[in-house]
């Protein structure tokens, strides 16, 4: 099955590397060409309305990634806030592995993350069932002096509850409070859903 590739003005590129369901190609000028193989599909089956809907979704994913690549080519580059919005738009299409790769590329190009982009990265790791990497990002935040917020903790608490580790999630909520982030309605909702999942 052919996989579409994003456009790049690079003369040459390193061999593509597969991460999750995505192919990442880093060209010689450090631009990233991302092809989301998980969004490429066969039209041999399914009705016409499904094919049209999937084609439209596929196009929107490509446009979001192409927009992010354009920001990387800008001189001067946009603020990290704009990059965060770009990552968020890609997350909406559940392209979590793609976002992880883009976050790593940002860092390699010297674009400093803020709490918003790191929260997005933590969320993606949790969605990919790579919770331990999410906690690694939390440790990195503390090391860099980036103060985690309630979103940071709630995302990790949710990841723990999804894995059935409710007691660990409770301990994390205690640490959350110790750092001045009081558990909120989202925190308690996560716990309620987590406990219901265990008891069902």
UniProtKB/TrEMBL annotation:
**Can you tell me where the transmembrane regions are?**
none
The answer to whether UniProt assigns keyword Ubl conjugation to this entry is no
Record's InterPro entries? PPR_rpt, TPR-like_helical_dom_sf
Q: Which domain of life is it from?
A: Eukaryota
Keyword list, A-Z: Repeat
Which windows of the sequence hold PPR repeats? 114-148, 149-183
Q: Which protein family is named in the record?
A: Belongs to the PPR family. P subfamily.
Protein name in the entry? PPR_1 domain-containing protein/PPR_2 domain-containing protein
